[in-house]
């Protein structure tokens, strides 16, 4: 029986899983989990990439020890936009910057002075976010960074780890598209844009589609892990691409939210949406599995609650995730709202204080207790989901009856129900481990175990039945939505 190894790296933790296809049923089990904590050095925030590399190898050793069948391949997915730079001798030039590092502050506006927003969007189709790779590179150029001056290759995070496994330098479409310097209309780098910004296009690796068999692990990796031969697949290496691949939708088209630290809200289309309205809505057209585009928008997600819990923990306040629903039930509904994507909430820090500050500055009741703050966050998220979904429906010219929610955030049943209520759509929640499952099914597609993505999604439906949430009390949510729109339109 074939098993594949899926490494799924998130912004706070990573894990290795063994995926198996038994007849027409998928299954997986986690064999290794590890933290992925950013590291502050001076005024710079980095990823500890060498620790992640060590954990990749530990995961391979455990895969060999725990596999009940034949290891057929491995794949890696991770967050987007961040990268490592290699010197002429292929040695890593410093630890990669974290996308929340402040070296890109104000850079996007400088780039727009050289190339207009409209031209960038028409060329790349990507949402304007301050941490996109193009702005990180431009920040290095502006700082006259020796890292950029000595760089001969740029590899995004999963590509860098894959290079260390195989010795092959290749850039996979789904992750490459998030850089905001890949062409929206053809699978190639946006060389004209790079030239206008005086950024070094020659350091970019050749592009390959998801599902590409890259090569076997290197002999030294075989010796260290005890695995003789193991092919490596370039899966949908952006974790959202993998998560969307695993959406168990039967209908076409379908709407989804990949819910975690970020919430990615959108649909799957065959051609990018590059209209003036798409630019106005600031949506993105990231490439997906099976020659699709992910028409979606990035919304700040459970990062807000993660930072709240971190602040409360430092203050000695102990709240379990299981206690959330009870704390929220003790509070009044629809008292206060925030725009989850306001810049006030972008950086690590005292998130409860920032939420209170936002409410104070917008003339709302200020949430004081953890329960009030949590209700404020979750209600605001559900209403922001509605706003973005309305924009996606307008651009795709399709009204969705159902909404698929996948990812770790769907373990929050209160948020799932609130999303159904706010959007007035039936929410089908599951699977939780969507990015890892998407990683697995793309490997099985590459190995010929599935013939089509639709066949793979049918296997996901059979194997991981969703939990269904029907909308309730939609009238009260409609009224709250109007208040929410008025609040987030205020300029602070």
Describe this structure in words.
- The radius of gyration is 22 Å and the shape is globular.
- The protein has helices at residues 49-66, 107-114, 117-124, 133-142, 146-149, 157-166, 173-176, 191-196, 219-225, 239-245, 276-281, 303-314, 324-329, 351-361, 370-396, 413-423, 434-446, 453-463, 474-488; strands spanning 2-9, 13-22, 25-35, 39-41, 44-46, 70-77, 83-86, 153-156, 171-172, 207-208, 212-216, 231-234, 255-259, 262-269, 284-287, 293-300, 402-406, 426-429, 467-469.
- The protein is of the alpha+beta class.
- β1 (2-9) and β2 (13-22) form a beta hairpin.
- The N and C termini lie far apart (58 Å).
- The longest helix is centred in the last third of the chain and has 27 residues, at 370-396.
Any key phrases for this structure?
four-stranded mixed beta sheet, alpha+beta, Nucleotidyltransferase, domain 5, 2 domains, 492 residues, 19 helices, seven-stranded mixed beta sheet
What's the topology here?
Blueprint: E1 2-9, E2 13-22, E3 25-35, E4 39-41, E5 44-46, H1 49-66, E6 70-77, E7 83-86, H2 107-114, H3 117-124, H4 133-142, H5 146-149, E8 153-156, H6 157-166, E9 171-172, H7 173-176, H8 191-196, E10 207-208, E11 212-216, H9 219-225, E12 231-234, H10 239-245, E13 255-259, E14 262-269, H11 276-281, E15 284-287, E16 293-300, H12 303-314, H13 324-329, H14 351-361, H15 370-396, E17 402-406, H16 413-423, E18 426-429, H17 434-446, H18 453-463, E19 467-469, H19 474-488
Parallel strand pairs: 1-6, 9-10, 13-17, 17-18
Antiparallel strand pairs: 1-2, 2-3, 4-5, 7-8, 11-12, 13-14, 14-16, 15-16, 18-19
Helix pairs in contact: 10-17, 15-16, 17-18
């Amino acid at each position: 029986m074939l098993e594949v190894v899926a490494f799924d790296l998130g912004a706070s933790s990573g894990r290795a899983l063994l995926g198996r296809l038994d007849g027409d049923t998928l299954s997986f089990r986690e064999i290794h989990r590890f933290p992925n904590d950013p590291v502050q050095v001076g005024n710079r925030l980095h990823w500890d990439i060498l620790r992640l590399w060590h954990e990749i190898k530990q995961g391979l050793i455990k895969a060999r020890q725990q596999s009940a069948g034949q290891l057929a391949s491995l794949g890696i997915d991770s967050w987007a936009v961040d990268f490592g730079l290699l010197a002429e001798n292929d040695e890593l030039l410093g630890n990669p910057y974290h996308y929340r590092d402040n070296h890109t502050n104000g850079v996007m506006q400088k780039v727009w002075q050289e190339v207009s927003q409209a031209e960038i969007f028409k060329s790349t189709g990507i949402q304007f976010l301050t941490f996109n790779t193009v702005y990180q590179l431009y920040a290095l150029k502006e700082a006259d960074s020796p890292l950029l001056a000595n760089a001969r290759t740029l590899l995004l995070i999963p590509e860098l780890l894959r290079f260390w496994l195989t010795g092959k330098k290749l850039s996979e479409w789904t992750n490459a598209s998030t850089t905001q310097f890949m062409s929206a209309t053809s699978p190639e780098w946006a060389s004209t844009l790079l030239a206008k910004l005086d950024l070094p296009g020659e350091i970019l690796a050749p592009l390959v589609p998801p599902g590409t068999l890259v090569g076997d692990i290197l002999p030294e990796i075989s010796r260290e892990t005890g695995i003789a031969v193991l092919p490596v697949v370039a899966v949908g290496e952006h974790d959202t691409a993998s998560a969307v691949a695993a959406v168990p939708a039967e209908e076409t088209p379908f709407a989804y939210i990949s819910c975690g630290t970020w919430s990615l809200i959108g649909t799957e289309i065959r051609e990018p949406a590059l209209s003036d309205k798409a630019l106005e809505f600031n949506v993105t057209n990231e490439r997906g599995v099976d020659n699709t585009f992910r028409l979606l928008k990035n919304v700040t997600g459970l990062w807000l609650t993660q930072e709240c819990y971190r602040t409360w923990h430092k203050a000695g306040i102990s709240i379990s995730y299981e206690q959330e629903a009870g704390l929220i039930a003790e509070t009044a509904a629809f008292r206060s709202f925030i725009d989850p994507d306001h810049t006030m909430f972008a950086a690590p820090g005292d998130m409860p204080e920032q939420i209170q500050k936002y409410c104070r500055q917008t003339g709302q009741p200020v949430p004081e207790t953890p329960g009030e703050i949590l209700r404020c966050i979750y209600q605001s998220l559900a209403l922001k989901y509605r706003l973005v979904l309305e924009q996606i429906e307008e651009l795709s010219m399709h009204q969705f009856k159902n909404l698929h929610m996948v990812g770790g955030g769907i373990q929050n049943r209160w948020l799932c129900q609130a999303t159904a209520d706010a959007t007035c759509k039936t929410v089908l929640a599951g699977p939780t481990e969507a990015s890892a499952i998407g990683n697995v099914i793309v490997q099985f597609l590459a190995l010929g175990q599935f013939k089509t993505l639709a066949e793979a999604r049918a296997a996901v439906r059979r194997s991981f039945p969703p939990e269904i949430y029907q909308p309730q009390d939609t009238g009260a949510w409609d009224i709250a939505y109007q208040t929410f729109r008025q609040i987030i339109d205020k300029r602070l």
